[in-house]
Each structure stands twice: as structure tokens, then as C-alpha cells.
Amino acid sequence: MDTYRTEEEQVEAIKNWWKSNGVSTITTIAVAIALVVGWRGWQDSQVENAATASSLYQNLFQIQQKLEQQATEEDFATADHLTGQLKSDYESSAYARYAALLKAKRSAEKGDMATAEAELQWALVRTEGGVLTDEDLPLRDLLQLRLAKIYLAQEKFEDAQAALKKVNAKQFKAIGQELEGDIFYAQGELDRARKSYQLAMDNADRIGSTEVLRIKMSNL
After folding, report:
1. Dihedral angle computed from the Cα positions of residues 112, 116, 118 and 119, in that order, rounded to the nearest 10 degrees
2. CA-based Rg of the chain, rounded to a whole angstrom?
């Protein structure tokens, strides 16, 4: 009887505890399960989004190569469509920024400097908008170099110089100095252009290919 009473008391104690804590326990478990499921779902969606963005960019890159060989209006339209899709649906991805970079190139080759500038600015804002990663740093410098070229084509010399000053990567040093020489040359400052070209030649010697620089120097 003592054992039975003890068991009855244990059962009653469990019932009372459940009445007091059952709902909160179920809620806690449900929340924990939801968090785990939600986290896994978010991870899966991120992987899926990255794969889709990668596929879109690969298609865009292939079309871009085709455009550089034999361009058609249909190909240009397809490239612009893919670029727009990457920018709207995968705005935070690196693929969207590289897509904008390619569109800026296409626009500049058509002489549409306003669109080229807008595309580069779009990509630059999204590159500098957060903490810069090792992947972002060379992209940022490349965007600034391209902007400097677009500004030079528009004879916005001060803007071009300002963009160049923001380029820090060593691999772009000679390119930046050559472009600086181009800016000075366009302004008629031949002595400063010569100095910039010489600096570019000194740095370019370390990576090869100084033929174009020699031609520019001889033209001075």
C-alpha cells in the first residue's frame, strides 16, 4: 500500500507539474524546432540562390564573349535582360556587381558613357556598402579605374583624378599611373603626362608589356 501510495503521489505530482509547465514546455520545444528548421531552410535557400545567380552569370559571360566576336541586337538584348535579372533578384551577390561591370563595358563601347557611369556607380555603392572582403577590394579598385576612364572620356578630369586616388591595389598601380598620364595629356599638361607614363613604365617592367607606354612616350 505504501508503494502504491508513493506511485500515486508521483503520478499526481507529474500531473500537477504538467498543468503548470506543460504549455510552456511544448512552446519552447516548438520554437526550438522552428528555429532549427528555419535556419536550415535559410541555408538551403542561400545555396540555391547562389547557384542560380552563378548560372545566370555564366550565361551572361558566354553571351558577352559572343558579343566581342559577332554582335547582334538580340544578343545585346539578352545580355541586358540577364544583367537586369541579376541586379534585381540577386542584388547583394558579387555576380550582380560583375554583371553591372560588363554592362558598363558594353555601354562604353557603344559610346553611351552616361549608362556606363551609372552601372559602375551602382556596383561601387554595393561593393562599399558593407565590410569589404578580400574579394571586394580588387573589385572596388577595378570599378574606380573604370570610372576614371569614363570620366576621362567625358572630360571630367577632376572626377577622373579623384577616382584614381581611391585605387590602392598594387596590381593596378601601373595601370593607374598610365591613366593618370592620359588625363594630363588630355589637359595639355605634357610634362606631368611624361612623368606619369615613366612611372607606369617603371612599374609595368615588373609585369611586362610596356609597348603601348613607349608609343605614348614617343608621341609626347
Report:
1. 140
2. 30
Distances (CA, A) of 143 to 15, 108, 114, 172: 68, 14, 15, 11
Q: How far apart are CA 120 and CA 98, in angstroms?
A: 10
- Which has the closest alpha carbon to 85: 66, 63, 112? 63
133-169: pLDDT as tens digits: 666 678 889 999 999 999 999 999 999 999 999 988 7
What is the phi/psi pair of residue 72, to 5°? -125, 160
Task: Confirm if 127 and 121 have CB atoms less than 8 A apart.
Answer: no
Distance CA 27, CA 39 (A): 18
Q: What is 124-157 written as a DSSP string?
A: HHHHHSS---TTHHHHHHHHHHHHHHHHHHTT-H
CB neighbours of 103 closer than 8 A, spacing ≥ 6?
79, 80, 83, 115, 116, 119
C-alpha to C-alpha distance for 180 and 196, rounded to whole angstroms: 6
pLDDT of residue 148: 95
DSSP string of 55-116, one letter each residue: HHHHHHHHHHHHHTTS--HHHHHHHHHHHHHHHHHSTTSHHHHHHHHHHHHHHHHTT-HHHH
Domains of the chain by residue range:
2-123
